[in-house]
Structure formats: structure tokens, C-alpha cells
Specification:
Mean pLDDT is 90; it is low at 1-22. It is built from 11 helices and 10 strands. A 5-stranded mixed β-sheet has the order 2-1-3-10-4, sandwiched between helices. A 5-stranded mixed β-sheet has the order 7-6-8-5-9. The chain is an alpha/beta fold. It is elongated and about 55 Å long.
Length: 253
């Protein structure tokens, strides 16, 4: 009896010692441009504590939607609510939508340059018309700020004049065109202006023409690591996220 018990205990210890340790998950996260800085700030702690590794892939909302609809594999997508909802209706997102952050559009100039007046709609119009060049996201690329701003130009009656001197960028930081001297003004999400060295954020668009973009997350319906993706989502909505959002020019939705 004692010998049998000893054998059982030794067998259990041997199994525990030789059982394979579960490998850390490798997550693929697709994110729209404005959330990149937030993720880059929050991911190190998540990876250290959880042991998971995160591959971050950044593109415009429109480009990400096309890629996901085309069958690209991913674990977590962070895009706009409308895109997440549409993808969910097509069976690409499972488990519902979680709103993470919101951000408005701002104007940037080269560091050291005089700050133009954008305090009112009329002042903004005058500034855009007098600028030698204006940079923003190419609307055809599907970036939310570029799509909105291009339509706003028509609403303001200055579409033709500003497009004639536009410097369009298909993705990434538009303000880099100002930093390099290729454009006088940049119009982009404020969270994508702040990280660019060599430029100054003048301020947000006037309230009557401001457009606030909300960013939301959804776990892939065919995610390879749904549990790890859920853990990351909880980290992105946790108490430490608010201060990071504020530092990046964003806020809770």
C-alpha cells in the first residue's frame, strides 16, 4: 500500500516536472494610425507582465478594413466603430466592440514658425487660403481625418484652392511633411501630430467644424489567441490607459 502510494506521488512529480510549459502567445494587432502611439506606450508593460508578444501593424482605417475583408489573419483590430461594426456583421469580428479612445483634428506648423490664427472658422479659412501648402492624409487612402478634412474644404468653399497646393500622404505622420519643409501646414489627428519632432501643434480645429474620431477594438472571429487578445483589451481599458491617452492628445470615449 505504502509502496503504491509512493509510486503514485513520484509519478505525479515526474509528470509535473516534465510537462511542457505553455508558450507565450504571439498576438497580431492591426491598428489605425491615431492609436499607434497609445499602443506603443502601453504594450511594454503588457508584454512584460503577461509574457505575450505583440506584433503591431499600422495602417489607415480604410486599408485595414480591406485587408481584413480579404481574409488577413489577426487577433485584435483597433479601427473606428463603424468599421468594427461592419466587419462584425460580415463575421470577421467576434465578441462585440469595445470603444477605447477619441481624438480631434488639429493643425501643426514647423517648430519656431509663427502660430497662425485658427480660433474661428473664418480665421481657419483665411489661414488655409494664405498657406503656401497644406498637408493631410490622402482621402483615397481611407484615413478618417483626410476623408473628413477634404469634405470640410468643400463645405467651407475653398476646396479647389486648397487642393491645388495640397501635399497628400497615404499614411503615417502627416506632420513629418512640415518638419521636412515639404509643407507649411499639416492637418491631422492631434495624437499623430504630438509625436513628430520639429513641429508645433497650433491647436484643434474650431469647435463648429471639429470632427472627433472614436477608436474601437474587436477580437478577430478567427483569432489564434483569443484569450491573450482579451487580456490585451482589458489592459488597454485599464486604469493606466487614461494618463497615456491624455499624454497622446486623446481621451476616454
Amino acid at each position: 500500500m505504502l509502496a503504491a502510494l509512493r509510486f503514485t506521488v513520484l509519478a505525479a512529480l515526474w509528470l509535473a516536472a516534465t510537462a511542457p510549459i505553455a508558450a507565450a502567445a504571439e498576438l497580431k494587432v492591426l491598428t489605425a494610425g491615431a492609436m499607434r502611439g497609445v499602443l506603443e506606450a502601453l504594450l511594454p508593460e503588457f508584454q512584460t507582465v503577461s509574457g505575450h508578444k505583440v506584433e503591431l501593424d499600422n495602417a489607415t482605417a480604410g486599408a485595414l478594413a480591406k485587408r481584413i475583408e480579404g481574409g488577413e489573419a489577426f487577433d485584435l483590430a483597433i479601427i473606428t466603430p463603424a468599421v468594427i461594426d461592419d466587419l462584425a456583421s460580415k463575421g470577421k469580428i467576434g465578441g462585440g466592440r469595445v470603444d477605447l479612445a477619441k481624438v480631434g483634428i488639429g493643425v501643426a506648423v514647423k517648430q519656431g514658425a509663427p502660430a497662425p490664427d485658427i480660433s474661428t472658422v473664418e480665421a481657419l479659412k483665411a489661414t488655409l487660403l494664405s498657406a503656401k501648402s497644406v498637408a493631410y492624409i490622402d482621402p483615397k487612402a481611407g484615413g478618417s481625418s483626410g476623408v473628413y478634412f477634404d469634405r470640410l474644404l468643400d463645405r467651407l468653399g475653398i476646396g479647389e484652392a486648397v487642393r491645388a497646393k495640397a501635399r497628400l500622404k497615404s499614411g503615417g505622420y502627416v506632420a513629418e511633411l512640415v518638419a521636412s519643409g515639404d509643407a507649411e501646414l499639416a492637418v491631422h489627428q492631434m495624437s499623430e501630430i504630438l509625436p513628430v519632432k520639429g513641429v508645433t501643434l497650433v491647436g484643434p480645429l474650431p469647435a463648429p467644424v471639429q470632427n472627433t474620431t472614436v477608436y474601437a477594438a474587436g477580437i478577430g472571429a478567427a483569432a489564434r489567441e483569443p484569450a491573450a487578445a482579451k487580456a490585451l483589451l482589458e489592459h488597454l481599458t485599464g486604469p493606466g490607459a487614461a494618463s497615456v491617452l491624455a499624454a497622446k492628445g486623446m481621451e476616454k470615449p
